[in-house]
Amino acid sequence: MGQLGELEPVPRKSTVEIVSDELRSAIMYGSLPPGAQLGEAELAGRLGISRGPLREAMQRLVQEGLLVSEPHRGLFVITLDEGDVEDVYLARLAIEREACRLIMERNRGEAVARLTDALDALVDAASQRDRVAMSDADQAFHEVLVSSSGSQRLERMAHTLLVETRMCLNALQDTYPEPSELVEEHRRLVDAIGDGEEERLLKLIEEHMTDSIDRLRVT
């Protein structure tokens, strides 16, 4: 950002980027469920676009691993088996463990302030016992955690797991911890950062991820 009051160019998204975002969101929230086949004509009609940008957007999602191409059949939304789910959370653990380590080396105060805001949003969702809102707030908390590390590369890596993580969270709905337990898990992470206890923080983030894997194994 430039000096205060200085006008800067407003970023514009191409049609392909907008369509890619729409498809990711549909996969993330289950409108396009795991295993669903994507029909070009139907999707182009629903989105009000030509097939060209739709095809390009779908190919982006193939490259991201969210769609899979089956010869002579077409494109399908990926399905996540138990091994995939475990792999997603282990990858997140590697990223978020390093993010935690960097936070402890850098500006813990800023991280605590940002994470406290994210925690407040989770508390609000938990008070309403709204599982979808809780999943949103849970995911947003971890996005802030990685962002607070100051590493753009870690943030990019975490972003590639965004939709798969949300697909896992959708599967986790029936085994999600009680709202008060979920809030407490995240509050302990913020407290550990605030207290400057790196060893406790790293232990907590590992337990948080492995507990999620264990809960998903019983679904």
Automatic annotation (TrEMBL):
UniProt cross-references to PROSITE patterns, sorted A to Z: HTH_GNTR
Residue ranges occupied by any HTH gntR-type domain in the UniProt entry: 13-80
Keywords: DNA-binding, Transcription, Transcription regulation
Organism per entry: Actinomadura decatromicini
Oxidoreductase in keyword set: no
The name this protein goes by in its record: GntR family transcriptional regulator
A GO molecular-function descriptor: DNA binding
Domain of life (superkingdom): Bacteria
Name of one Pfam family that matches: GntR
